[in-house]
Design goal:
Elements: E1 2-7, H1 13-22, E2 26-31, E3 34-39, H2 43-50, E4 57-65, H3 69-77, E5 90-98, H4 105-124, E6 135-143, E7 146-152, H5 174-184, E8 191-194, H6 201-211, H7 231-244, E9 251-256, H8 259-272, E10 279-282, E11 295-299, H9 310-326, E12 331-336, E13 349-355, E14 358-365
Parallel strand pairs: 5-6, 8-9, 8-11, 9-10, 11-12
Antiparallel strand pairs: 1-3, 1-4, 2-3, 4-7, 6-7, 12-14, 13-14
Helix pairs in contact: 2-7, 3-4, 5-6
Length: 366
């Protein structure tokens, strides 16, 4: 068995752990933004197809104590790179360091690449590497004087589902949206409504989750195929993923006041193949009421850090607070970084989830 490391956004570790367990992976360790687990040669293909909240998947090539540069160089050059990296690949190295004696990221990156190239030249008996055909991504991660050498096995970040072709300001990343949807999930609702839908990421991810549509099924040109994903394995997981799909048992509705955002949403729905599955309409949140029925309101309203004027935010969040308090049948999942939003209701729980560097909270009433 091999060891792999999956990254996720801070606050979503428990969700990713559940996903990995559902896929029958053995969990070794969970830490902030990272989960180490056991897998085999098919793991890159399986994780690229099914994981919703993982950012990147790495194979751990080495995990050793290291607190000086001589040891670092030796650890890197002793990895059998000739069996890992294909000829003429550009070798991209990234350095990370936390609470370690080796603290210079530029030196970590340059020395690590130097050791890799030195071994490849010797083992391949050549004078130079052209680095002209694709790339291999290696991360050297130091934490408390321990070095992990990590090979990116999926080729690109898993948040890039491929459907988000319509652009708006400050969208929620797909993997974060998927985590919010998992935390917000409730059975037996009539409608899932996003009154600030923007380009539609939350609704698209909830729709995919509700129907058990694997992220890898909508990447179209197989975004995640890499040197470390066997295409025949990936094709098998495509068929397995198709067999898991179920019908939706509720309606999906997205509203926004911004016509440009709605145009972007429609483009994204078309790219994802969900054009006829989610209703999209222009509405001003302040000028209509959502039915006090068993509906789920899931949204990422505007807030001042990125978008929204203060006077508008006061009105929007005032109405949201009123809805939380008096709409007994409505269920809510409101994700926001607006620090003046306060819900005084024993039924409402909140969870801290960072949106990039912005401290934000998910308010849940289920």
């Amino acid at each position: 068995m091999k060891k792999y490391l999956a990254t996720t956004m801070f606050g979503l570790e428990s969700i990713l752990k559940q996903e990995l367990k559902f896929l029958n992976f053995n969990i070794i360790n969970v830490s902030d933004g990272k989960i180490i687990f056991e897998g085999d040669d098919r793991t890159p293909a399986k994780t690229a197809m099914f994981l919703r909240t993982a950012g990147r998947i790495y194979e751990i090539l080495s995990d050793e104590f290291c607190n000086d540069f001589d040891t670092y160089f030796d650890l890197v050059i002793n990895v059998p790179w000739e069996d890992i990296i294909r000829k003429n690949r550009f070798v991209y190295t990234k350095g990370e360091t936390t609470n370690s004696k080796i603290s210079s990221v530029p030196v970590i990156q340059s020395m690590g690449k130097k050791a890799i190239i030195k071994r490849l030249l010797e083992k391949w008996n050549i004078d130079r590497i052209s680095e002209s055909e694709g790339e291999t991504n290696i991360t050297f991660s130091f934490e408390k004087d321990r070095l992990q050498i990590l090979l990116d096995v999926c080729g690109r970040s898993l948040h890039k589902r491929g459907y988000r072709v319509g652009k708006v300001e400050a969208p929620v990343r797909e993997t974060l949206a998927a985590g919010i949807c998992e935390l917000a999930y409730v059975k037996d609702v009539n409608k899932v409504i996003d009154p600030f839908c923007g380009s539609g990421t939350l609704l698209i991810e909830y729709y995919m989750m509700k129907r058990r549509i694997a992220p890898g099924l909508i990447t179209h040109k197989r975004n995640f195929l890499s040197d470390y994903i066997n295409e025949s394995d990936y094709n098998l997981f495509i068929e397995e993923a198709k067999s898991r799909i179920v019908e939706a048992d509720c309606d999906f509705v997205g509203y926004d006041i911004d016509s440009n955002a709605l145009d972007a949403f429609r483009k994204n729905l078309t790219k994802a193949g969900f054009t006829d599955d989610i209703i999209v309409a222009r509405k001003d949140f302040m000028k209509y009421n959502i039915e006090n029925d068993r509906n789920l309101v899931i949204c990422n309203p505007p807030y001042g850090e990125r978008i929204g004027k203060e006077e508008d935010l006061v009105e929007i969040y005032g109405k949201l607070e009123e809805m939380f308090t008096y709409s007994n049948n409505l269920l809510f999942a409101v994700y926001t970084g607006y620090d003046k939003f306060r819900i005084r209701n024993s039924q409402v729980k909140n969870r801290k989830l960072f949106n990039g560097k912005i401290k934000s909270y998910l308010y849940l009433k289920k």
